[in-house]
Amino acid sequence: MSNRALLEVIALDVEDAVAAQAGGADRLELVTDMAADGLTPARETFAAIRAAVDIPLRVMIRKADGFAAGDVSLLAATARELRAEGAREFVLGFLNADGSPDLAAVEAVLAELAGCAWTFHRAIDRAADRDQLRKALADLPGLDTYLTAGAAAGVEEGLPVLLAEAARGGEPGYGARILVGGGLGLAHVPVLRAGGVDAFHIGGAARPGGWERPVSAAAVAEWRAALD
Length: 228
Known about the structure:
Layout: E1 6-11, H1 14-23, E2 27-30, H2 43-52, E3 57-60, H3 72-85, E4 89-92, H4 103-113, E5 117-120, H5 130-137, E6 143-148, H6 155-167, E7 177-180, H7 189-194, E8 199-202, H8 217-227
Parallel strand pairs: 1-2, 1-8, 2-3, 3-4, 4-5, 5-6, 6-7
Helix pairs in contact: 1-8, 3-4
Pfam families: CutC
Family: Belongs to the CutC family.
Protein name: Copper homeostasis protein cutC homolog
């Protein structure tokens, strides 16, 4: 069996998507408005990217900055519309004010996804109790990934948590894949790989010119080489 690590790259548009695929990305996370840490892109953007690349796409279901769900009916309608457009993989995650998982909001969205694969995003890094959150979500249909830095401040602070959670793989609540992102640098890769982490998520690291510039295929290729 191959031990090739998964490399996921944030894409805002077709130009990003094409460059990321050319650089060796395995999957894209599709968002808009990085000033709000990534919201749901337009259906038209999803459709254009789907037509331009042939790697998997995970689409964000998030309508406002922060981790509160907001209008749950709007989230559900958004998920339904993206499914109708052909989306088959998603990213979502909502917390209550006390830092517990908002299961009602998550389940309302999942009801529209019909078992599609999805990632619980970095809301886990703001949870009051990570272990409790994982166990509360463990049996939800389609959940196969947690996007996490291990800490709200980023990977540098969260490394001990990431390694500890990777070591618990297969325990109740720890079956989903760990996808590391949030302040991730190339220097973190060797220790994470040695600890059993095999999935990595980059956004700004794929854009040496900053978020106002598109994804660089060369930057993605550098990550691909480091992971391989």
